[in-house]
Amino acid sequence: MSRLLAATLTVALAAALAVGAALGVVALLEATPEQPNTPLITYERTGQGS
Fold it and tell me: Per-residue DSSP letters for 4-44?
């Protein structure tokens, strides 16, 4: 009986770990990185009238 209990607990723990890992991966994929609002290329506008 103790082997059956140990197997059941192992399966339950493995399932809980798999669900937690899946939720963690989904949370990481939905996280948007903070991006600065600075342009990579800037053009100078000297001597162009307007």
Answer: HHHHHHHHHHHHHHHHHHHHHHHHHHHPPPP-----S----
- The pTM of this model reads 0.57
Measured distance CA(31)–CA(50) in Å, rounded: 42
Per-residue pLDDT of 7-40, as tens digits, reads 999 999 999 999 999 999 999 888 777 877 888 8
In this structure, the chain runs to a length of 50
Annotate 33-50 with DSSP letters as a single string.
PP-----S-----TT---
Q: What angle do CA 6, 19, 2 make, to 5 degrees?
A: 5
Look at residue 2 and give its three-state secondary structure.
helix
